[in-house]
């Protein structure tokens, strides 16, 4: 037999360290909206950020817009991302609720 080590349990854990979640903080400015396509395979995504709501209210708003607009959406890192170019419809929805929204970029 060779003196070569085949298996050892004292090497520590092979688990990857967990990423810390960024805590979401509501903003005091108006909600901003932009259209993103970069890094998404050419697909367009309407992104709402700088939200003046707490996490629960933002998710409730996202669900409401998903139902109204018939689109997929997700809440990531304090932003609402909706599939497709929905800027005009989102702006109209915010105005009907009396909320301020600003278009950011182009």
From TrEMBL:
Residues 1-39 are annotated as: Disordered. It holds the Pfam family SUI1. InterPro entries: SUI1, SUI1_arc_bac, SUI1_dom_sf. Residues 37-98 form the SUI1 domain. GO terms for biological process: regulation of translation. Gene3D superfamilies: SUI1-like domain. This is Translation initiation factor 1 (eIF-1/SUI1). It comes from Pseudobacteriovorax antillogorgiicola. GO terms for molecular function: translation initiation factor activity. Keywords: Initiation factor, Protein biosynthesis, Translation regulation. Residues 24-39 have a biased composition (Basic and acidic residues).
